[in-house]
Amino acid sequence: QVFLVEKAGRRSLFMAGLMGMLISAVAMTVGLVLLSQFAWMSYVSMVAIFLFVIFFEVGPGPIPWFIVAELFSQGPRPAAIAVAGFCNWACNFIVGMCFQYIADLCGPYVFAIFAALLLVFFLFAYFKVPETKGKSFEEIAAVFRRKKLPAKTMTELEDLRCSEQA
Questions:
Q1: Dist CA 89 CA 148 (whole Å)
Q2: Residue 2 in contact with residue 122, Cβ under 8 Å?
Q3: Fewer CB within 10 Å, N or C, the chain?
Q4: Is the Cβ–Cβ distance between 140 and 67 less than 8 Å?
Q5: What are the pLDDT digits (tens) for 34-44?
């Protein structure tokens, strides 16, 4: 996994995983909708579930942990990882507790909700998530500030002093 992340890049793997999950969710929805007409659609749904899990394990499963660790400097990093972990587990809990009710309400279209959310996540990643592969914290922070780095890269402490004086 680490070799693949270093070779392909975090952002590209994350986005490929999201798009693969999106396509798999659409395939699951189509398979469930057409199951009453075509018995072989159960195989389409099963393959889509396996692909969904594979794409999750390649991208959206591990990559956010890499990105969160690289987006924050040493000081706020533990708090950022704690917030990310809380959000992750809270969302897992909500999906786990509500899925059956949503499935009862939506029927075979339950995975269309996941597909819509995955599309939103993909668009967010495309427009907002930077590639962090091979970049220092200062370079990543400069991407968010939309400024080019000066010839001499400031340390984080110097950067904080400059922002306090301004």
A1: 36
A2: no
A3: C
A4: no
A5: 999 999 999 99
